[in-house]
């Protein structure tokens, strides 16, 4: 299909993974977006360093292409993108963008003007020839479903900032005329939760319209390190998006798939989108 002279592929579902990014003073406040995606794409991966602090040359390389987002590749039926806030490794300030992070997270399509190389890990940057090459071709990729990662362990100012972020995201997406589904993934359930983080999330959820929750929303509790509910999160996202495409209601809408300490390969959600 074509739009404004650019092609876009409608066969795969485009998933946009978003979540709070700490300020330069709170760079340790990482919610676990990249680790979650990495565990889904490669369940045997043990890569923990997905730091957003990079060189300016890497920012303009074939992987990032001067954009504050990553293309993680495709795992049927999903094409996975992640919104980021990259920081200059010399100035320790966010690399300039004409659009704020929150506004980038709320965009409803990805516009690719030049081929963008699939991201594997941070050590790939600068040595791209040492990794397999899979390019995202130029075109327009409308978002079919959002996945918002919420860190249940943040405290103090980071928790307050994350609370504001999730409230804005839920408010804007739930009132969008595009009716895009959202999967809320609460992360790090293998660690001690922060009471204030849980309280702020509960407050944000109470402000949502019940009709939207019943039709476009699902929630999962996840541990990426223990690989609990990781696959389920992406399967639910695909199922919600497919149901919307067919004009149907997903069985997972309005549901909360809780964290349970079971075998890491025993997932709760099956591939019901097939």
Automatic annotation (TrEMBL):
Gene3D superfamilies reported for this sequence: P-loop containing nucleotide triphosphate hydrolases
A GO BP annotation: regulation of cell size
Any one GO MF annotation of this record: GTPase activator activity
Annotated InterPro entries: P-loop_NTPase, Rho-GAP_domain
PANTHER family named in the record: RHO GTPASE-ACTIVATING PROTEIN 190
SUPFAM superfamilies per UniProt: P-loop containing nucleoside triphosphate hydrolases
Protein name as catalogued: Uncharacterized protein
Coiled-coil region(s): none
GO cellular component: cytosol
């Amino acid at each position: 299909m074509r739009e404004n002279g650019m092609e876009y592929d409608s066969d795969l579902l485009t998933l946009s993974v978003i979540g709070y990014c700490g300020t330069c003073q709170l760079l340790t406040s990482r919610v676990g977006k990249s680790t979650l995606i990495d565990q889904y794409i490669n369940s045997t991966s043990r890569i923990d360093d997905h730091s957003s602090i990079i060189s300016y040359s890497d920012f303009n390389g074939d992987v990032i292409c001067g954009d504050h987002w990553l293309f993680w590749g495709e795992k049927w039926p999903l094409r996975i993108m992640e919104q980021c806030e990259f920081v200059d490794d010399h100035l320790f300030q966010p690399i300039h963008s004409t659009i704020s992070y929150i506004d980038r997270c709320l965009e409803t399509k990805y516009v690719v003007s030049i081929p963008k190389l699939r991201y594997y890990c941070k050590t790939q940057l600068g040595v791209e020839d040492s990794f397999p090459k899979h390019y995202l071709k130029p075109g327009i990729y409308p978002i079919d479903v959002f996945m918002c990662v919420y860190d249940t362990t943040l405290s103090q100012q980071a928790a307050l900032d994350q609370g504001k972020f999730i409230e804005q995201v839920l408010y804007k997406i739930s009132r969008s005329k595009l009716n895009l589904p959202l999967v809320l993934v609460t992360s790090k359930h293998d660690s001690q939760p922060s009471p204030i983080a849980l309280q702020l999330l509960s407050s944000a959820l109470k402000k949502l319209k019940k009709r939207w929750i019943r039709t476009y929303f699902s929630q999962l509790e996840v541990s990426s390190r223990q690989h609990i509910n990781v696959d389920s999160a992406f399967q639910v996202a695909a199922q919600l998006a497919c149901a919307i495409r067919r004009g149907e209601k997903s069985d997972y809408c309005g549901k909360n798939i809780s964290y349970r300490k079971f075998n890491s390969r025993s997932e709760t959600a099956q591939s019901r989108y097939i």
